[in-house]
Amino acid sequence: MLCNVCNKNTATVHLTEIIKDKIVELHICQNCAKVKTQELTNELTKTQKKEDSLKCSFCGLTYAEFVRKCRLGCRGCYGIFKMELIHLLEKVHGSHRYAGKSPVSISPESAGQIEIEELKVKMAQVVSRENYEEAAGLRDKIEKLKSKGN
Amino acid sequence: MFEDFLTNQESWLNYEGDAGDIVFSSRVRLARNFSQYPFPFRASKSKKESVLAKMKEVYCTVDALKESIFVQMQDLNDLDRQFLLERHLISKEHLSSLGGKGLIVSKDERIAIMINEEDHLRMQMLTFGFDLEQCWRKLDDVDTQLSRKIDFAFMPDLGYLTVCPTNLGTAMRVSCMLRLPALVLTKRINKILELLAKISFTVRGLFGEGTAAYGDLFQISNQVCLGIPEREVIENLSAVVNQIREQEIEARQALLKKQKLEVEDGVWRALGILRNCRLINTKEALSHLSMLSLGLDLGIIKNIVESDGPAENSGQADRARLSNLFMIIQPAHLQKIEGKMLKEKERDYIRAGIIRERLK
C-alpha cells in the first residue's frame, strides 16, 4: 500500500484520527509519520502555553492553580476561566445554567454590562488563538448588547 | 463570653417547645462573596479586614439581625470557639487561621453569619423540627436586605459566585438532622445511605462520617445547587426527608412487632443507667438518650420527669428535655456551665450529675 500523504513510499505506519466526530484511518510512510508527529507536538505545546499564560489579572490566580485546587479566587476568575469551568459544572451539577434568584443590586442594565465585559475577555482569548471568525461573531454580539443598552 | 446563651429563653436551643420527633432540626445555608474583593483564600489581611468592616457597618440595618452580636474569632478563647461549634453556629473550618474571621449571631441563635470562612459570607438559619420553608423565607429576606448594601459577586448565567464550583449557583445547602434509631437497630440504615448517595444527597453523622453516627443522628443535605431554582432544592430535600421518615416509622412498627421485649429492655436499661451512673462519656450518653427518646416515641415509657402540667403535655416536655440534654452534655457546654476548664474524667462526672438531675 502506498502512503496516503506523499503517494511515493510504502505505508508502514497506520494511524487512526478523529476529525470532527468522524474516524479517519491514515496509512503513511516513516517520513510522513515523522512530520505528523512534529505537527501534533507543536499543537500540544501551543495549548499548554495558552493554558499556562491564562491568569486572572485581579487576584493573580493562574490556570494551573485553578486546575490543581479546583477553586476560584475572585469575581474576575469567573470571567477568565469560564470556558474551562463549563465542562466541570456539567459534571458536578448536571447543568451550567442558573435558574435561581438575582441580587437586588443587579439591575438588568448592570447584568448587560457584565455580559459585555465577559464577551470582551472571550474575544481577546479567541483573537490570541487567531480564530478571527469566532472573534468577529463575538464582536457582533457585543455591538448588539451595547445598542440594546442604549 | 456567651454565658448568657445558656440561659437565654429566646434561644431556640434552650426552648422547651416543639422539639421535632424524627426530624430534629432544619437548616438552610447560603454562601455569598463580595464583588470587589478577592475571595478569602486569595485575600490579603487588609482585604479580609475590609470585608469585616463592611459587615460590621451594615449588619444592624437588617431587621432580623438588629439585636445580634458581632465578634472576631481571634478575640475569643478556645473554649468559646468550641462552644460555638457545639451549638452549630460555626463550622470546624472557622476554628483555624483565625485572622480576619468573624461571626454574627442573632439573639435567638437561629441566624448565624460566618465571615471569611471559605467564602466571604456563610449565612445560615436553623430551627427545630421540619421547617425548611420558614428557614428559607427568613434567610432569603436577610440575603435580600444585605444585597441592597453589598455588591454580591454574581453572574446572570452562573448565579452566585463561590470559591468552590460545587457551591456555585444558588450557593444554597439545605439540610435536615434526622433521628433514626429504629433504622439503625433494624440494620436498614446502610441501604438508605447508599441510595441517598446515588441520588446526589450527602449524609453525615452528628459528629462523625457515615454510619458512625452518635445518638442515631444523621444530617442529610443536597449536593446540587445549580440549574434548579431555590424552591426546587427545598422540595427535593423535603421529598427525600419525608420518605426516610416513613421508613423510620415502618422500622419502629417492625421493632414493636418482632422485638418488643428487646427494645423495652434496652429503653429501661438506658433510663436506669442515665438515672444512676456516676461517670459517663458523650458517646455513651448520646446512645442512651437516643434509646430513651425512642422509648418515649413508642409509648414504652409514659413520662420520664414529673410534670405539673396536664398529662398529654408531659410527653412533649420530656422530649424537649431530652433534646436539650443532647446539647448541654457536650464538652464545651459542660465547662461553660461549670464556669471553668475540666479534664476528661471531671467532665464525665459532671455530665453524669447533670443527667441525673434533669431526669429524676
Q: Would you summarize the structure shown here?
A:
With 150 residues, chain A is mainly α. Chain A has helices at residues 30-53, 63-69, 75-80, 82-93, 108-128, 132-149, and strands spanning 13-19, 22-28. Helix content of chain A is 59%, strand content 9%.
Describe the structure.
With 150 residues, chain A is mostly helical. Chain A is built from six helices and two strands. Helix content of chain A is 59%, strand content 9%. The longest helix of chain A is centred in the N-terminal third of the chain and has 24 residues. Chain A is elongated. By secondary structure, chain B is an alpha+beta fold. Chain B is built from twelve helices and ten strands. In chain B, the strands form two sheets. In chain B, strands 2-3-4-5-1-8-10-9 form an eight-stranded antiparallel sheet. In chain B, strands 6-7 form a two-stranded antiparallel ribbon. The radius of gyration of chain B is 21 Å and the shape is globular. The chains are: A mainly alpha (150), B alpha+beta (360). At the A-B interface, helix 4 and helix 5 of A face helix 4, strand 6 and strand 7 of B.
